[in-house]
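I'll show one example:
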Amino acid sequence: MGGVLTPAMAQARQFKEGKDYTRLAKPLTPDAPAGKVDVIEFFWYSCSHCNAFEPALESWIKAAPKDLSIRRIPVAFNASFVPQQKLYYALQGMGKVDELHARVFRAIHVEKINLSKEDAIMAWMAKQPGIDMAKFKEMYASFNVASQAQRAAQLQEAYGVEGTPSMGVAGRFYTDGTMAGSLNAVLQVVDHLVAVSRKG
């Protein structure tokens, strides 16, 4: 299933509602600024598929049109996921996502460091250069980070997220690797859904 789709193949393929993506029964009001299309990646740091998807997603984000508002949302299928949700939002709050997001994936999937619990996260963060640990601990435990994790849970439920990585578009559409046929195809489906969303 993991074949690469060339642009020509993507053009030839017609994406179908109910097969390649679903339409939300209850559309959401997107969090994106007016005139922008809201695009969400739902992910989990310990997910091997998310780790594999990250380089392709990062390239896609860099080349994305200016009218897209792209966000990553860390999921929590149960309470054990919450420390990693808080890790992501603490990094975001400190402006460190660009610097450390890929490094967290690498630590878990390449270096085999278990970052599922708060004490392990703190120990790992303390080894990262240029991190003010007092500030990080304060951010990690903050009301703001807790609120963002709560908002993430609401979005996860509203989009009906069943696995990761998966993508939500414009508060109206949802797709993932299983529906699209491969992780490469997910971004082709998202491009299609963005085009549909632009038309209203």
Q: What stands out?
A: The two ends are 32 Å apart (CA to CA). Strands lie at 22-23, 37-43, 68-74, 166-169, 173-176.
